[in-house]
Amino acid sequence: MLTVSNYHYIREDFKTKYPSIFGVSPSSFKKQLKLLKNQGDFISSKNLIENEHRILTSKENYILITFDDGLKEQVHFGFSILNELSIPALFFVNSINYQEQKISTVHKIHLLRSKIESEIILKRIESKYISKLKFLDIAKIKAIYIYDDEKSAVLKYILNFILDYKEREEVVNELFSNYFNENEMLNYLYMTTNNLQELAGLGYLGSHTHSHYPLGLLPSKQIANELEHSKKYLENLTKTKIETVAYPYGTEEACTAEVSKLAALAGYKFGFTTKRGVNNNTKNKLLLNRFDCNDIIGGKNYKS
Ligand SMILES: [Zn+2]
After folding, report:
1. Dihedrals phi, psi of 64, to nearest 5 degrees
2. Ligand 1 centroid distance, CA of 150 (Å)
3. Ligand 1 center–CA 206 separation, angstroms
4. Torsion 114-119-120-123 (CA) sign
5. From ligand 1's centre to the CA of 104, what distance in Å?
6. What is the tens place of the pLDDT at every residue in 244-262?
7. Cα(79)–Cα(24) distance, rounded to whole angstroms?
8. Number of helices and strands (H, E) in the chain?
9. Å from CA of 125 to ligand 1 middle
10. Interior angle at CA 217, CA 154 and CA 289, nearest 5
């Protein structure tokens, strides 16, 4: 059986004016790794690719550590702690940050929300797209974003699932340029291409698609393009094979059966969702379950 623990932000200090960036501290990351060490054997993506049948059907627990979004702090803190403990990992990055020198909209949203109230962003959206906001299922929204207050959860849901990507980018870009310098934040936020090459050389690099969109909501042609383009870009950059993908958001809507088929067609061997659970007797290795690090042993929401 395979247990996957996924991480995003890892920094010493999460204090911002409006708390909207969440993650783990380096010390709690290290603590969690030590707890996990007692629960199974850490594996790399190379181990998984070479021994997939044994790992996915064994009674023994194999553990894979993953990071999404290609953040610089993941190398700075995460990678160095992993090295110290001799634990392999897999880092999923978006090619848009390198090829187009753009910050992913999802990160622009995190940054904006750390600086201005959700309310201001919601009002801007309401003034432009009120007709799209009539039938929101608040209970469902709260069930998806269990760590957010209601206003922030509604804002996230509208941004991720109600507005189409053009509408979302329009609202977010307009606000973002009022508060941040994109180039400066790009360098601050993301790994360097040297980092990507180093990780890829170890077999630690995977694709998080090109633009960080919820794939299941896109037309087929665009889904295929998001999967293929990022794979080729990262392969060219690193001169390695990119065989794993983590689907942005990872929810059911984002990870449909069609998405998994197109990922296989693009040449990926394993695909990761954010559906909670271990993987045993897995039917589709392009739709693997993955825990958020908060939900497993040592995580802040873990109940034994
Ligand atoms: Zn992501």
Report:
1. -120, 130
2. 21
3. 12
4. positive
5. 9
6. 999 999 999 999 999 999 9
7. 14
8. 15, 10
9. 22
10. 85
